[in-house]
Amino acid sequence: MARIVYGVAGEGFGHSSRSHLIGQHLIEQGHDLLFVASGKALSYLSDPFPDRVRPIAGLQFSYDKGRIRCLRTILNNMMCYPRAWKSNAELFENHLKPFEPDLVISDFEPFSAWWAWRNDVPYISVDHEHLLTHCVLEHHPSDWFARTAAYVVTRSYYFRARKYLVLNFFDAPVRSPQTMITPPVIRPAVAAFQPERKEHILVYSTDTTTRESLLHTLGQFKKDRFYVYGFNEDKEIGNCRLKTTSTESFLADLSACRGVVATAGFSLISECLYFHKKMLLIPVLGQYEQIINARYIDRLGLGVASEILEEQAMRRFLEIVDAPMPNNPHILWPDNHRFMELFDDTIATVLSTGKS
User: How many angstroms separate the CA atoms of 279 and 296, rounded?
Assistant: First the structure.
């Protein structure tokens, strides 16, 4: 069995939950595993793997009113770089080098991948973000700025991985034989629920500045019932039931809803597909990955994409929310077993070739 370093990005929940699932699989397969993680991932993974996690200084995105600010992100990371580099140099010298890994896996974590490249250790990329750089997609000319920014950021994170496993919900042509599209995976907490169909629409918002406009729009559809998460409140407002943050409550309401209104993050999309729920997706402004996700959800008949939550988009969504899910061969439904098969085969292939 192999000694594996697993680098996990600290931004967003999807990296953490996915790495938890895959990391547990690697340990059960007999591999010796060491996580390096930052931000939310460090806190999340330290609970199930207290002796296997080391902190790494990661990159962070800067937001303003729900929109990613590219220039501010670059400047803030440049200002933090000297301190981060010193901290990571100590991590590499005191933990990674003595561990002598046979393989590095990176879930959009750049520093562990850079260390692997400089030390001639083979590494594998496992994430959704490299869909933007390693697959052939259809783009709108009007999105050129967001697309360019996303491409540059994703490319600069790391390069020259032996294999790129791109988790995605639709099949897409790949640009190189080093890239493979895989189905999404679902964390055990989600798989514990069975899909039902009740009368409510689940709404999830991460932008508190839109609270009043969101509730006003939902209030126009008085015949419909909405369960609203994201504001961490517990109250009734018209036809909306605002709910406090709770993983179990959220998943129970997700598994039983008619449909979902949310931003276009990959993890929640995967969970909606697992429960066969249609979606109204409003991408985070300036986040091109979410723009692409929403566009393909709309194109595949899995839901509706809209730049903002407004009445016309909601009406269109309510017209299709109760229709059967499409039977499109290009849709990749969540499949943990299939992903693990592809993942294990990839690791075996990379380890068999050894160092370059």
Answer: 12
